[in-house]
């Protein structure tokens, strides 16, 4: 099932091994956020305790060393995504801020009244509302690429929807509900041919499979550290050099300027142009440790491990009477959303929690997708590098118990 | 109606404490939800939805001679049960009693801690709404007597 | 000099006590960022190791408990600033993002062509460039309240500048170069009378004196955790309820919506409307520990301690031949910017660093102020809760040694 | 000119290693800065400023028969000294030698680590600029011979 030693991996996560007295945790909400390995926690804590300094501002040793480490993580991130240049990596608070940065900087400068932004029917609110706000401000509209009943994009509709008015195509790499991995390279190729730029929301893919932004051919790729075994409060915006270079600043403040006058101000080149103010320094450094951790395991191994779990879980869940899974795309990632006939997802989640099993319940920030699926909410189990078949067995047993209580 | 809100809370806690396992406590809550009077469809309105709940919750109230009578509903069985607990405790009491008496019973039921501290399951939102109704009716009543 | 036991305070900062083998650190750059006490480092690390969960999304216990702690820090922040309501506290990445939020949400919806934003001649770039970008977008202009040679606002000019076109007055509570504490309550009174809203940049004041937003009478108050003994990557926007309530969302994403449709989306009330996406959860929790730490010492004690140091340092620095201090406002805070005739600030900073003394050198993100002062850059020494007279003695000795090398 | 860039770096390091204290090493750097030829005022232009330095740094270069000759200046004495070190090492060498030889000497001078790793003090920006000139001149030269 896996090419790495799962018990050795799990031993590195204090939430799984080190909570004395606490009940064993069955954590099946990695799509919302991932647990943290000890190396990441220590990297941040040690930085505060031994090496703390601000970045880019001080000439003294602590600040210089912090700057070197901070910029070192930028290089790690470049390599993690296989970007061409380190200057293509901008640190943000997370996926949501990264999309908003693009929508506001790129979007507001390019979109005109009558233009369109094409999203898909499976997007997370972050990749809908950010565009809606900008579209409304400039008089552009949102159009939607539909999905079929297996949870895959209807590519046959793509060329029709890619009218010359479409300036941006924004789509998830992996759906946070269906688990579908979208054919991003194909979409990007066609979008580029139609003159649109392509943003890929990699919140769900970045920590779960190898990602190569050059192979994907996208203009932007965004992801969140906290879903990648890293600290909260930091994420990446990858932007293709030529596109980033042409974008105006979004937020104004320290470190993103060359000169400031009350009359005229000139701005730094990317990525600094887009990193106004003191950044999440310690979080970036912790994120570096997370990228090393994931690369140390190897993302192919990790993807194989999670595919194995997904197949196993899909089979076992079908043992539960009345259970219905949403999303059956071939090669789907480790995310399984389901309902059980006659039982409210809220009730299922609450009774699983009583058994120490953490799943997500709700609309998963994807209300338009819920509407398409014909439900108000679902239960969602999702896997991470530390997940095991035993977690899935616990879930299935837990669901049997839930049924015993609810029916 | 001589039993106070506090009495009713104490009785509820006492009853739940006789139920040994968490499964049976949930079964009892769900059973109580099933006994909840049918929610009148004319009140299933957007304005009667309690915000901040992860499941859908409706709550409606009417004043009657200084007292408040509530009806409620939810699409989730556990939440429906919680509503029935809340209403069993508060419904039919006076404005002032409802406003003055905090809900202390939830912690005593022997359920997972999360049920009591949650913004998400909406219990606190529901309790807040229960009190807001009493406050609003009291304000209206005072105005009318002026 | 101080009403608290400085050695006990210092013992809580690993950077000052616990760096085995490292040279003793003389840290005089607290205006850039502050060192962290052990309780803050542990709060964040323990959260990751024992209690990690995401906020506002999960019904399972870990997520509920994390949400309760996260919201608990909001209440701590309310109390720290003496805001009326907890809903007036929005978490941001820091001061810079908080100002940009106001400039974009409030600014873009209120400012029209021909309107003005009034700033002062001593502002940090964060409180200039953010407004410039918005002004440029809507056709408004920036006007500037001048300062006198002691580094104080020329209040006599205020009423003249407060034309009906001025919609926003944005000023620092304490200057990050001059140390001047501005008469914010007086400015706010007059600005309100003229129909403008008032934003106070509290980056330099929040950790160094008692702050009461109701007494200041401002509409917005912003500050950064990393300058307040807290983690990097988080800060506060306080906004008066009525003003915040009327503001449109800025960033779009998860947790800030009520319903999302491709056609229409409705938004949460403040503060959630302004916290799109997964927030810096662990950082907020660490920030809570920092607020407790500062309140445990007592901000009056802290202010008295730092005033004592400022007086002492001002006296001792004048022993250094050719040294000139900028800013002599009565009651100024613990920030001392200076130059020495005939020596480049860069050289001074470098040679102090060789002696283990960390000061800041440069324009301090206040180029317009540098222009007003007639210099390109200065050296800046600034104090924090852990600073001592010994630090100042080391600085003065260090400067004598620097003079010996440079002249 | 038979001494290579590497030779010169080695010689510099050897010389600095004979200076015992950090104070004297800085004095030597500053002294070397004073010996820097006066920067021609006609080159004190915005386009000759090296970006990314905390002090002001100017660098100008001209090609001469396959070699690059540099002049530089700074308002900070230490940076001026560093410029003089860099130019002592690189100026007058061939395009290819300049492009091919990394600057390894800085770590060997016995100065604070921050001088070598800094984006802020601009040493790396300065070294980059030195190489860029050589690259640009080489590209121009190749074009002319085509
Ligand atoms: C007065 C003032 N405003 C704003 C800022 C910006 O704060 P931050 O970089 O934490 O966003 C600073 C600090 O650099 C400051 O001193
Ligand atoms: C597909 C997708 N996009 C965007 C996001 C938002 O990420 P964040 O909340 O870290 O900004 C998420 C996670 O919630 C997601 O799953």
Q: What does this molecule look like?
A:
The complex is a heterotetramer, with two copies of chain A (407 residues) and two copies of chain B (146 residues). Chain A contains 15 helices and 15 strands. In chain A, the strands form four sheets. A seven-stranded mixed sheet of chain A has the order 2-8-7-6-5-3-4, sandwiched between helices. Chain A has helices at 6-11, 14-17, 38-50, 61-81, 95-110, 126-138, 158-161, 184-193, 213-216, 241-245, 281-297, 299-317, 345-353, 367-373, 389-406, and strands spanning 26-27, 89-92, 116-120, 141-145, 166-172, 197-201, 220-224, 235-239, 257-260, 265-267, 323-326, 335-340, 357-358, 360-362, 378-382. Chain A folds into two domains: 6-29 and 298-406, Aspartate Aminotransferase, domain 1, CATH 3.90.1150.10; 42-295, Aspartate Aminotransferase, domain 2. The mean pLDDT of chain A is 95. The longest helix of chain A is centred in the first third of the chain and has 21 residues, at 61-81. In chain B, a hairpin with a 2-residue loop joins strand 1 and strand 2. Chain C binds chain D through residues 343-347, 350-351, 353-354, 361-362, 376-377, 401, 404-406, and chain D through 22-23, 26-27, 30, 54-56, 75-79, 111-112, 114-115, 121. The complex binds pyridoxal-5'-phosphate (2 copies).
Summary keywords:
heterotetramer; A: 407 residues; alpha/beta; Aspartate Aminotransferase, domain 1; Aspartate Aminotransferase, domain 2; 2 domains; seven-stranded mixed beta sheet; four-stranded antiparallel beta sheet; 15 strands; 41% helix; 16% strand; B: 146 residues; mainly alpha; Sufe protein. Chain: A; two-stranded antiparallel ribbon; 6 helices; 50% helix; binds pyridoxal-5'-phosphate
């Amino acid at each position: 099932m896996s090419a790495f030693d799962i018990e050795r991996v799990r031993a590195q996560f204090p939430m799984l091994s080190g909570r004395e007295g606490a009940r064993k945790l069955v954590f099946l909400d990695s799509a919302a956020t991932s647990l943290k390995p000890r190396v990441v926690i220590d990297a941040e804590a040690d930085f505060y305790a031994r090496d703390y300094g601000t970045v880019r501002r001080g000439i003294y040793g602590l600040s210089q060393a912090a700057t070197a480490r901070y910029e070192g993580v930028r290089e790690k991130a470049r390599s993690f995504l296989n970007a061409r240049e380190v200057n293509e990596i901008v640190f943000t608070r997370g996926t949501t801020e990264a999309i908003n940065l693009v929508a506001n900087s790129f979007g507001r400068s390019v979109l005109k009244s009558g233009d369109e932004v094409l999203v898909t029917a499976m997007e997370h609110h972050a990749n809908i509302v950010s565009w809606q706000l900008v579209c409304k401000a400039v008089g552009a509209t949102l159009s939607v690429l539909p999905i079929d009943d297996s949870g895959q994009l209807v590519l046959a509709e793509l060329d029709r929807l890619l009218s010359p008015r479409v300036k941006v195509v924004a789509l998830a790499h992996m759906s946070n509900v269906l688990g579908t991995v979208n054919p991003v390279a194909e979409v990007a190729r066609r979008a580029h041919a139609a003159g649109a730029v392509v943003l890929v929301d990699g919140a769900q893919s970045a920590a779960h499979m190898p990602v190569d932004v050059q192979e994907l051919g996208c203009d932007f790729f965004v992801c969140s550290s906290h879903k990648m075994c890293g600290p909260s409060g930091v994420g990446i915006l990858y932007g293709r050099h030529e596109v980033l270079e042409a974008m105006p600043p979004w937020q104004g403040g320290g470190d993103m300027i060359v000169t400031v006058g009350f009359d005229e101000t000139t701005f730094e080149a990317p990525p600094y142009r887009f990193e106004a103010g003191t950044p999440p320094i310690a979080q970036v450094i912790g994120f570096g440790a997370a990228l090393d951790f994931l690369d140390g395991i190897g993302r192919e191994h990790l993807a194989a491990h999670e595919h194995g779990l997904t197949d196993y879980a899909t089979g076992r869940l079908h043992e539960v009477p009345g259970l219905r899974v949403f999303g059956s795309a071939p090669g789907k990632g480790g995310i399984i959303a389901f309902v059980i006939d006659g039982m409210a997802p809220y009730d299922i989640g609450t009774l699983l929690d009583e058994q120490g099993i953490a799943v997500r319940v709700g609309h998963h920030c994807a209300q338009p997708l819920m509407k398409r699926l014909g439900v108000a909410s679902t239960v969602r189990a999702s896997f991470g590098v530390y997940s095991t078949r035993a977690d899935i067995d616990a879930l299935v047993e837990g669901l049997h118990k839930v049924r015993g209580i609810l029916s | 109606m001589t039993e106070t809100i506090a009495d009713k809370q104490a009785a509820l806690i006492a009853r739940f404490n006789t139920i040994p396992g968490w499964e049976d406590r949930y079964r009892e809550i769900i059973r109580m939800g099933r006994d909840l009077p049918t929610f009148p469809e004319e009140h299933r309105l957007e304005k009667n939805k309690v915000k901040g709940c992860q499941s859908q919750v409706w709550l409606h109230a009417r004043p009657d001679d200084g007292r408040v009578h509530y009806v409620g509903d939810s699409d989730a069985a556990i939440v429906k049960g919680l509503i029935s607990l809340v209403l069993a405790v508060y419904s039919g009491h006076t404005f002032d009693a409802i406003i003055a008496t905090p809900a202390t019973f939830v912690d005593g039921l022997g359920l997972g801690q999360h049920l009591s501290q949650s913004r998400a399951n909406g219990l606190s939102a529901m309790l807040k709404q229960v009190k807001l109704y009493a406050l609003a009716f009291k304000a209206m009543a005072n105005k009318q007597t002026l």
